[in-house]
Amino acid sequence: MGRVLKEEKRGKWSSDLVLDLYSNLLAEIWELVSALIGEAILAFLVGLAVRKLGEKYPFLNSLTVSEEGISLDEMKEGCRTVAPVEIHRGFQSLINQLSHLFSVLAEGVINKELFPKVFPKVKEAERIISPK
Amino acid sequence: MRLIFKNLNVLRSTINAISTGIEIKEIVESAGNNLPNLFDFSSFGIFWKEDLLLFLYQEESCPPSFTQEVVNNMIKVFSILGEESVGADRIVLQIEKRKLRPKQMVMDPKATLKSYLTLPLAVEGEILGCIALNSDQPNAFDAQDLQFFSVIGYQMAATLKHFQRFSSIKNMAIYDTLTGLHNRRYFEERLEAEAQKCFHSNTPLSLVMVDIDFFKKVNDTFGHTEGDQILCRISSLLKTSVRKKDIVARYGGEEFILILPEARLEESFVIAERIRRLVENTLFEVRKTQVNLTLSMGVSNFPSHQVKSKEELVEMADQALYDAKRGGRNRVCIFTGKFARGAAPA
Description:
The structure holds two protein chains of two kinds. By secondary structure, chain A is mainly α. Chain A contains six helices and two strands, in the order αααββααα.
């Protein structure tokens, strides 16, 4: 987080830092939601969300999703040429898409748990990555 | 704490009941019987994609409008999860009504769907269907319900996948992959069973061995892909020309065999003749060319022929087929020992 703050002060974000930030956020979402619906179903839903957004944000296709979790390792190399704001938008859309799927499945039950813990961080990420 | 232990025990026995099921209906019923001990719901649904079967296990007093809402919602959610739209008119709906509530709590005839939990039945990234708990009460389900329901969903998906694999292996073991007819292995098994039954009860049993005349010419002229299509067409003609209780199998290459249980010799001859004429009068289109094909067939029968074993019955049908070939093809011959009685085309 110290590294993140330094970069924030400098006002310049590299693709790697945006990926790190979303890697942590997705890990939190994974931990929280997998406890509710299990790893297999969550992996299926993340895969579905990625397929939905893969055309608009092709870098998302290199996200590795399995019952072990979500890994961004393979994505890092390919993302060097992608603008950090674009990466941010892609992940933001992914989280929104997941949230939509959660509400399609269980109305508010999952999002009620997820919103207070994860969404302030999404908002914060948005504020520091793309300041108005 | 005691409640959690009680629920975990119910969950354990639910999972156990699901995992020991060997048919979809059995798995669904096991779940349906156990779920009321874990959740307060009006309707439990399971949608099985492969058969487009939607099974609802619901409260006796569920009004039809509520059922319809549940069906629509499950189809809508599955369409999102499965990335394919499923028409409500294609769904096979099965409803089992049970008394899930005390008399004073029967559902309002105007009850609507107020809350639900739906989960995909997903295994290794593949979606097999979905399950749903539905209620006419608002906010009927919480995070713990979701946790328990997901454990049940996971077990159901694993059991159903196992069931699907088992069915597919079973199909591979008894069907010919090209023609969709039964394969030789299945034929041998069924003949063993039918022969035992017929020899014991002295009821008739006939075999018809079928061979496509000059089929090699088709393969040599048009290629094996076109030849395979002809095999499929003829298989389908054979399948639709026999009685429901008859067994049609691919014996090998362009040879087929029919088991006709309880068919007397004359009856078998009539069936075989009908097939011979049908194929003779069918024009097979191969690469925009119309081709005529004919069949040669040999018939054997118990008790008309002095048969002591199923092997003898096959040998006799084979001998009769040989006689049909030798007699000029496009004919049905009945086994006669040394001489064959043939029916030449009119």
